[in-house]
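haha ok so turns out i had the wrong file open the whole time. this is the CORRECT one, sorry everyone. sequence first:
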Amino acid sequence: MNDLTTAEQLGDFLRRRRSAVSPDDAGIVSHGARRVPGLRREEIADIAGVSLTYYTRLEQGLATNPSTQVLDAVARGLRLSGVDRAHLYRLAGTTPPVESRPVGQGLQTLLDRMPDVAAIALSPLQDIVAWNRLGHAVLADHLDPGAPYGATPPNKVELLFTDERARLLHREWEHEACLAVASLRYVSATFADDPRLARLVGRLSLASTDFARLWAEHPVQLCSSGTKRFNHPQVGRLDLQYEVMHLPQDDGSRVLMMHALPGSPDDDALRLLASSTVTE
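then structure:
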C-alpha cells in the first residue's frame, strides 16, 4: 500500500484545491497563458497574508501547527466550502470552529413529523437552531416560535442561567444546571480555540454567579439520556424521558428528544400540551 501521511494529505489537498481556483474567481488579473491550472502558490500566499516560504512548507507537509487565522485565510483564498474547510482543519490537526448553521429542511421536516415527541436541535455550543411545536411548548413557550431561525438563536445554557421563566420550569434546577455546565465543559476541550465559546462563557460568568461557580468546579459529562422534571406553566408537573441523538456531520450538533412513558399521567399531560399547539 502507498498510504499518504496526514501532512502529505494536507499538501495534496491544498494543491488540488489551488488548481481548481481560476484567477477570475480570486479577482486576480491574469496576463497571457499560464503553465499550470488554477492559482500560483505566491498568489494564494498573498491572499492569505503569509509568506510564500510558509505556504510552500504547508503544501510540502513541512509546516506544523498552522494557526486558525492562517487556515481561515487559506480557506477563503481557495474558496473552500464548509465541508472542505472542516477537512482542511482536521488535516492540519486543528478542530474546526463551531458554527450555528441553518438546519436543513430535511431535519426540520423530521422534527415536525414527531408530534408526540418534544424535539429540539442544538448546535455544538447549545444554540437552539430548530424545534418542533411540542419542543417549543415544553422548553420555552414564552419565546417567539421563530427564535431559533434568526441571526442570534437562543442558547439553551444561557436560558437556564439568565431567564427566570426557564429557571422556574425545572423542578430540579440545580441538577439541570450542573448537567448543562458539564455538557458544555465536555465540548470545551474540542472547541477550546473557538472565540464563540470564550464569549459565551465570559458572558454567562458575568451574568450568573451560579454559572461562574459551576464552571469553576470543572464538571464533565456527556449527557445522552435521562429524565427531565418540569413544573410546566400550562400542565403542571411533567416528567419526560430524554435521549440525545448526534447528527451525522459529527461536529457536535445534536437533537434532544423528550417523551413521556406511554399510559402515564405525564403522557396525558404531554398530549394535552401538544393539543394546545395545534392551530386552525
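The chain has two domains: 6-91, 105-276.
again sry for the mixup
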